[in-house]
Amino acid sequence: MYLSDNTRLINGTCNQCLCISQINYSALNCFPNLTCQLFPIFPLNYDIEVTSNARIYFPNQVFPNASQCMPNITYLLNKLKLANLISKTVSNPRDAVIDNNGYLVTIETYNNTLIRFDPVTLNITKKISIPNVPSNVEKDVVTYFNGSYYIVAHSDPITVIDSNNLTVISNISTSMIGIRDIIFLNNGQMMVGCSCDNNSLVFLNRTSLEPIKYKFAFRQSTSFACPHGMWRVNDTFFYVTAYTNMSLHSFSSNGNLGHWNETLVFMTSSGQSGSGAARVTIDGSGRFWFAYETDTVLIYDQEGTQLGNLTIPNSQIFDIKIMDNYLMYFTAAKTSQVMRLDPNIQC
Q1: Which Gene3D superfamilies match (predicted)?
Q2: Within 10 A of 61 (CB to CB), how many other CB atoms are there?
Q3: 115-140 confidence digits (pLDDT tens)
């Protein structure tokens, strides 16, 4: 039972109250004496008590303390469309990363440069030259883990840079080319990358912390072409996007050290030729935000139903970073932009 002073009491069965509550109410208590308590909004302070044979429902699938921090998609998209967009020009930025110092970080695809930005103004605070990578080699990935930036070029090695003193502390061979994303499992004990060129995942085991070293463990072919974007859920489950056919696939551990179970989750479509599922980001409500290197990001629920879209003209978005209160950062390699969009949602 959900308790608050801001309520409406009515007589009726639980089914009757549910029909009414779907229109204008956020929560509903059903009591065994054929009365119901309706809540038009969530109060800031409330108590929950256990009452025999009573039930609580949230008709709009928005839960207490989440009405603003996890807004429904229509409300959120309207706020984003009215939000102030900050954009800075950077040559072919790839991933959007936030490090432990709060900097927004990206790499330039065709220059040997790692760039740090002020997270509010997007002013550049630091440019770092990446050594040992030829200038004509495409830089496809930058990610951040445990105090270090991991930069992946189209071919070996992965360059590891300490985020504090900005020096190279390791170079890691993957025995693969065309890696488009990497994630870390088991507190960094395992690194997983997806190779678009080889249509496969590569798994590496950490063999040393100081210096950081990884060793090739095994390779697993995918049932789809060009695995591209990755999203870690936990140590035994992650998602991978298929760039070419724009599908989403899950991989789950089955206890077999040399193989993970692959499952097609659902198909997506950007609706535009020449695009591909570059990255996927999952928000706090479990919604999937797909970037296709087009102006429009598509949002899907867990069942693969399209919920809406967000369009930023002349952007061709590659990556999305969703922060607290749905502050968002975007990178756009094809149009050389880094963007910040703040819907000003207060939790």
Answers
A1: YVTN repeat-like/Quinoprotein amine dehydrogenase (2.130.10.10)
A2: 10
A3: 999 999 999 999 988 876 666 678 88
**In DSSP terms, which residues pair with 38 in a beta bridge?**
8, 28
Q: State the DSSP string of 24-56.
A: H-SEEEE-TTSEEEEESS--SS-EE---TT-EE
- What is residue 24's three-state secondary structure? helix
Q: So where are the chain's domains?
A: 2-57
Contact 287, 300 (CB under 8 A): yes
Dihedral angle, C-alpha 16, 20, 25, 26, nearest 10 °: 40
Q: pLDDT digits over 148-205, tens only?
A: 999 998 887 899 999 999 999 999 988 888 999 999 999 999 999 999 999 999 999 9
State the Cα angle at 77 between 71 and 83, rounded to 5°: 105
What is the Cα–Cα distance from 173 to 220, expressed in whole angstroms? 17
